[in-house]
Amino acid sequence: MHLEPIDVLTVGQKYSKNDLANLLKQPNLSQVREGVASSTNSNSYFLFVDLEKTGKETRFHFDDFFEEDFFHWDSQTTQHIDTPKIQDVVNGNTIPLLFVRVRQKEKSKTLPFIYCGRLRYVSHEENTSKPVHIIYQNVDFDDFTENIDLLEVYRWKPSDAGGTTKSKIVQRGTVSEERKRKFRKPNRTERQGLVTSRVGQGFYRQQIIEKWDGKCAVSRIDALPILIASHIVRWSESNDEEKLDADNGILLSPLFDSLFDKHLISFDDDGSILISSNSSRISTESIEKLNMPRDARISITDGMLGYIRRHRSKFRKLESGDEN
After folding, report:
1. What are the transmembrane regions (predicted)?
2. Cβ(299)–Cβ(217) below 8 Å
3. Looking at the domain assignment, is residue 169 inside a domain?
């Protein structure tokens, strides 16, 4: 029985071209030296991408990177939007499958690619040709992944290699229809339990991780598996737009997340930390034992100010003994 590539490939799994040749029964893949290859037994179109272009000729410094669940991709230098292969992709006649690695080699050893799943054409940059710059929707983008290799690919940006993108198309902050369909409201247990102000999974978490560079806003700890993506203004107090707004998000370690959620800490407009001094809420001794960084200051953008002020207003009321 013939199986399609998407039936045997796993998002986040590492594959060399030899692996793919054997797994997909397409010996030609082991000989592919270019960044694209057509499937010989399906309508798949394989894209092989090195994010870092070290050691490559300047003409091969393609503009390839993830932005949210979209993927920026430069075609081959012989292709334009009307090239038959590209038109097949645009019209949905072929399905691009994306394989990415950050760098080609490590300690002289060729690295495998990370499989990122299916792509769907969204748009292309006008007036780009040979290569044409295409924006894809990554259909299989995994907002829930804890796969470190996949997260590294998702978070990589041209600036990480000292470069900049030439693309004028900006997808950052764009919430795709695909993500909206997957986005879920916290369940009853979460609303009543620890997750009172956050949606700890999914694309919102990915947006907050990117916004805060994968580090706790206060301590700058980068232990990603334990960091919590919280809403500054609680889910229950946010409208639909605010629930999806990355500016209403903050990345915190469990300690600071708990203190922030209970309004035992907040922040001034300049980012300076405010710590509760109301002993009926938390004792001075407890604050001292927590070794709180009283000189801590977080980075606050203009878009965050309204949310921070609402959080701080509640902090002030609770400090004054006003429970309402």
Report:
1. none
2. yes
3. no
